[in-house]
Amino acid sequence: MRTKHTHISLNTGKREPMAHRRWTAEEEAYLSDNWGTVSVNGICKKLNRSKNAVMVRVNRLGLPPFLESGDYITLNQLCLALRGQNVNTYMLTSWVKNRGMPVHMKRRGKNAYRVVYLDEFWEWAEKNRSYLDFSKMEPLALGKEPDWLVEQRHKDHQAYSIQRKDPWTVQEDDRLKALLKLHRYGYAELSEILHRSEGAIMRRCRDLGLKERPVKADTTGPFSKWTESMYQSLADGIRAGDSYAVIGRRIGKSEKAVRGKAYTTYFTEDADKIRGMLKDGPWGGGAPIPAVRQSLHLNGYSVQVKRDLSRLDMLLRIRMNALGYDPYWQRHMCQHWDDVAGCTAGCTDCDNCAEFARIPPQYCARCGVTFYERMSNRFCQSCRAARKKQAQRRWCREHRN
Fold it and tell me: pLDDT at residue 143 above 80?
């Protein structure tokens, strides 16, 4: 006897026979809307159909493969479109972990895939366009593109023509060595001749173990000063997504000088972070307040910070003298010091003493506070006074008559 299988209809909610059941318009709409988002097993359970029936209907409807449906692609496909190579650990660390690119996980059977929604990617890419390189990405490789991408791709092509990023060749190494032996060119001139960034030239000299170095630039002449128009051009270039090399050529400064000015103002060379702090204001707007350790090494802050630290030191010394401290203040923390006999170690100069032993901390058994005393005690000074008062009151009660 043949068993009849039944299902619950999406339209009527009633149980109907499953054999030779036709697909309704509502079921096909549900399959089209959720294909690629809901798992295949979830769709089968929702529609109460077998996996074979669902896959046959997918082929008849002409739906794309599971991982290519919807408004997303795999992370590996995105890397191939942008960089022409598969995803690696560097991209996962630099893109996803450090810069927060939104990545989602999707499952197909027992396998899990990293996928990126295109609308989220373009929103993230606009904030990190100075870091990404769109010169290798073909137009419309990811479908519809935002309006700003056309201009940014042109700028990336321009930056690549100025500074190459491919591996160094033997001929380039020989030419670099020959130019360095002339002792005539600085980093800016070598960057223009070799079409490499100043940082790349610096790293290549170190990797090759070259003793010669580029000539240092003159940072003291009248042409080394920054004007307001230069600051304005620097701010506009960062807002527009230009590279540091292009900005340097525009204002007549080296790339290294532009990077240094960006770091001394915003404490980072990341143009995307600077753009977020700068917004629509003038250069220096939104800059973070430097810490004391940073300020000591910055030309614009070091003089004032050192002056403030000197005043603080003077005030602390005045306060120390007002409290009665003498020059040998460290004797109050030494285990070998006695208020009557002096130094028990026989030292006469506390500043040059080699027998210094810091007083070890002790813990009160009554209140648990940490206190420092040369004599070993179970209780701190406050608890000893309180216990003494308690004993006196007890004695008065017992001997009142």
Answer: no
